[in-house]
């Protein structure tokens, strides 16, 4: 009987302690800024035949 009373007291104390906890979720006042410094580099390689290369050299005025 004493053991049951002890368990009941502990259980009621646990309920009282947990009922005092308050959890609050709020949104921030300012918007979230994500600053992404991204550097994008690319390289394009074009291989041409010797004949086409010769034509481009001889007719350089075609492409300004």
Q: Structural class given helices, strands, pairing?
A: mainly alpha
Q: How far is the first residue's CA from the last residue's CA?
A: 103 Å
SS strand fraction: under 5%
Proportion of helical residues: 40-55%
Poorly predicted tracts of residues: none
User: What number is the mean pLDDT?
Assistant: 79
User: Which word captures the global form?
Assistant: rod-shaped
What is the string of helix and strand elements? HH
What kind of sheet is the major sheet?
A: none
Enumerate how many helices there are, as a single number.
2
How many E-type strands? 0
The rounded Rg comes to: 39 Å
Describe the protein.
With 64 residues, this protein is an all-alpha fold. The protein has 2 helices and no strands. The protein has helices at residues 2-19, 50-58. The chain starts with a helix and ends in a 6-residue tail after the last helix. The mean pLDDT is 79.
Key words describing this protein structure:
64 residues, mainly alpha, 2 helices
Layout of SSEs?
Blueprint: H1 2-19, H2 50-58
What's the short story on this structure?
With about 60 residues, the protein is an all-alpha fold.
